[in-house]
Each structure stands twice: as C-alpha cells, then as structure tokens.
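Protein Entry — a single chain follows
Fields — amino acid sequence, structure tokens
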Amino acid sequence: MSLPQSTCTLIVGAGPTGLATALSLIHHGFRDFVIVDAVTKGQNTSCAIIIHAATTEALDTIGCADDLVATGTKLPFFTLATRSIATLVWVPFELLKPYTKYPYGLVIPQLLTEHILEQKLASFGVTVHRPCRVIGMKPNSSNTKLADVTFEDGQVITAKYIIAADGARSTIRSIAGINFVDPSKEDNNTTIKQVALANVTFDDENLDGFPTIGILSPGNYFLCVSFPSTFTEYLANETGKPIKGRIFRLSTSVPNGGNIPSSPSKEYMQNLVNTHGPLELSSDPSVNPSSKSVRIKDVIWSSRFRTHCAIANTFFTRLPTGDASDPQGPAILLVGDAAHMHSPAGGQGMNLGLWDAIFLGEALTKHINAAETQPLSNADIILTSFTAGRRSLALEIVGFMKRLLSITGVEDEGVAWWLPISKVVLRDWVLWVLGKVWFIQRMWVWNMSGLGRR
C-alpha cells in the first residue's frame, strides 16, 4: 500500500498502544495522521491478557470499551494459591463496585484487543499501512521542523510529529538516541529471570470451568488463565482451522536462572505444568486429585519473556537537526513498550501503554493548537509536562512490578539461624494472614485495578 508523501503525525506501530493513540486523536477531532506497522495482519503475537478497570474507563472515554467488554470475560476475583489450590490470597475485584462501572478484570488476549481496536479505527475510514518497517529517520532538508521517515521498501513520509509505539526494540527510540535502561538495576533478589508463555488446549473437555488462578511454589509462580470462547472463534475464522476446547494461557517462570526455548514445545510446557502448576492439571494420575491424566492437547502459540525492566530517560524529545542556529527538530514521542517495559506479573504493561496512548491524544491536540499561536518553546511545555507525568507513573509501576516479582520468586531456604522456618513458608503464612484483612484486600485490588493512579 502506497504511503502519502506527508502527514502531520506519524504513528509507528499498530499494536494496542498505536491503535489507541489514533483513536484518541480522532476522538479529539484530529485526523491528520498516518499509522503504520511492520507486520501484516495476523502476525502480531504478545503476552498481554487482561485490561484493568481504570484502563477500561479510559477506553470508554474514546468509545472503545463496549466492544471489548462484550468480547472478553469478566474476572470478578483473582486467587493466589498453592499447587493443591489452598487459597493464599483472594483479590476480589468486586470491591470496586462503589468506584467504577467496571468492577472486574477484563480477560481478553492482546491479539483480540488489537483486532477490535483496528476494526474501530476502520469504522472511521482509517487504514493501517502494512507492512511498513521503518529503517531511517532524519530532519527534512527543506524544513528542519519536519522529519523524513524512510521505510524498508524505499518509501519516505514527511511528518512533524513521530509517535513511537513500536515496542521494546523501538527503531524510532534508537534513531532518536534515547537511552532505555533499568531505572534501578536491582533484581530484588528474585530467581525469576525468564517466563515461559503458551496458549494451549487440554485433552479434558471438563476444564471449561477451570478458574483463572496463580500458583506460588518455591522460587516460582505459575499462572493459568481461561480465555473467552470468542478468542477460539476468532482464531478459527482467521486460520480456517477449527479449534476444539477452551484455550488457556499458561505462564510460568523457570527458577534458578534456567533458559527457556524461544518457542516452548508441548512437551516442555507439560513438564512445567507437572512441576509447578495446579495438581488438577497434572498428567500424572498418581498426584492429580481426579486420579486421571490431564495433558496439553495443542500449543496454539508459545514464547518466552525476560523479566528485566527498562524505561526511556525521556518520553518526549526533538530530533537533533545538526544546525546550531535551529536545534529544534521534529517532535518524537514515546508510548507503550517503546517508553517502558517490565515483568508481566500483575498484567500492568499493556494497561500502562493504553493510558499513555489515550491521554496523549488530548495533550498532542492541545500542543498542535498552541503551536499555531505561541512560540514553540511555550507550546512544548504541554508535552514536557504530560510526558514527565507519564514517566513518573511508569517508574511507580516498575517498582510495583519488582516488588511483586520478589514475592513470587522467594526460594525455599531458611530465614535465619535463629528462626528455623523457610522463607516460602513464612511468605505463604504472611500472605494468608494479610489476605484475611479487608483493608489489605481493598489495597491490593485498588493497586491492581489502576484506579488509585488515575
């Protein structure tokens, strides 16, 4: 598909963050933008699986919540338990009912979220240009306030604003020379360095009602999430291949720094289920409470994720022009994983990126209008203030995720010579006690939902 020669705003990346940015701009009455993505439709795969209440509220402000809610599964509570499913922590999202019309976590795979948001964008007559991979960016020779962005196929588009929504390996961020590092460089003494992810079906059709649950074991966590049937239907329609049974997301760490294959096999994932998962999913009938073998039938998709954190040192800059008399080049804005990344624990990554995108629409339209009547340095205060706030929130989330990871990665070793109890037993006991306190439950729900950070 041919690109236009110029646009005011170029959005690079059409994952949830890039699509939400485009929809937010339309909501605020701005349409002079082009959105591109490096891959063709159907090739996007990712780990995000839940939209929290505050994010659903934000999506509602740009008219996108209803279709997502209708497609996903409402999760009224979340449970952390032992392998025998003895409850350690119960996180009741229903406690949010007095504060939001979305008192639940919305379980919906990112691929389905992207599909719905792109359909919404198409309803406004906007098409994502695919595949368009950025390979270069430089100030325009005639007007240094503009950038010439070059694509792999040789096409060039000129833009005043470039929004990097192109993920953790952002080409735009790299060309702009923005550092992307762990803000604290601390691992919180966790052994969890990598996570294996897989969307699977099981050979037991009676698992349709199996709960979404997190399992804590020594130095490890295991997450099992039941996807909505709409996801099964979507994949069948896209691939032309029927899928029998409910699709589950399995996510599990590998303790002691073990390496995970880039695409874990069915056998590999089954071994992790047997070792770290709930006993009800074990293929060993001698330990499965049902006295039968439950096995993974098919792996629909699998990958791995490293749990390290990183954040850009700024979410807004201007591309250097090389001209000392006119140093202010085109504006570069970072959103989503291009701006920040962290552990998938707690399901905060895509939510934070969607917030970036939705709120950027308002800030950018204000900046565009202000730049028409004010000096650029004055107008830039709008974006500087906005992105500073977003970065501060991202730093807070990174810290929150590291604390969660340190809890899940506790190893089975003694606390101290004078306290003959293992750290795992102490952790589980503390979580069980705290989980009985209503105030603590409310605090956990408030933090997970994002409502406390609106």
The domain at 6-72+108-185+309-407 is CATH 3.50.50.60 (FAD/NAD(P)-binding domain).
